[in-house]
């Protein structure tokens, strides 16, 4: 993790975007542009055509794909790219988020408030579930980035009771909190809460990770698939798990 390089990437990207005005005019969203600049400052190594696809970055580390959501859209790319070299998926997660409401006509800020929702590394499992067949490939790599974010939203309309309806149009990263690299199947154990009992259920995982039960079940589905945890029995209607020794 290089905070100085990250802040520099943020500043350089925002400067380049300042030349363009108007909501929704950015051809590339700020988050994606910042991360691409952070991982590869040389533009000659960005947007490289490989076969029928275009890779975000190609350098000495292989192929790097910045994917903010919808990992299912990567399946065809991954199938093609992983036959050639290591492929690193970079996925940003908003650790802390400020919601900025913008007037769509004037572009002026209406309000700014902190979202009560906080992201964590465990949010990645919903996306990993979509690409389970690729997780055991020797060329699979993952970088989870926990980032503080300002989320810009356009105001659509206001309900009679004062509640506002808005649409997100951009996310601006403001600080880098952590990077978690998954380079081998063993590294997936970094995504297991350290305070779990030796034998645990999805409810125990939910409590330790501070996520919903559905998220915990998805996490354990993925972790079982790659062999980081093992299903060893049942406790009532719940499966019991333990961390794999292999």
Can you walk me through this structure?
This protein has two domains: 181 residues, no CATH class; 54 residues, Winged helix-like DNA-binding domain superfamily/Winged helix DNA-binding domain (Arc Repressor Mutant, subunit A). 24% of the residues lie in helices and 37% in strands. The chain is built from six helices and nine strands. Strand 1 and strand 2 form a beta hairpin. The longest helix has 16 residues. The chain is globular. About 2% of the residues have low confidence.
In short:
With 246 residues, the protein is α+β, with helices and mostly antiparallel strands.
Main sheet?
Answer: 7 strands, mixed
The DSSP helix count reads 6
User: What is the share of helical residues?
Assistant: 10-25%
Question: Could you give the order of the helices and strands?
Answer: HHEEEHEEHEEHHEE
Report the radius of gyration as a whole number of Å.
Answer: 20 Å
The number of distinct structural domains comes to 2
Tell me the fraction of residues in β-strands, as a range: 35-45%
Measured between the Cα atoms of the first and last residue, the distance is: 28 Å
Mean pLDDT: 89
| Overall SS class | alpha+beta
Form type: globular
Low-confidence stretches: 22-27
DSSP strand count = 9
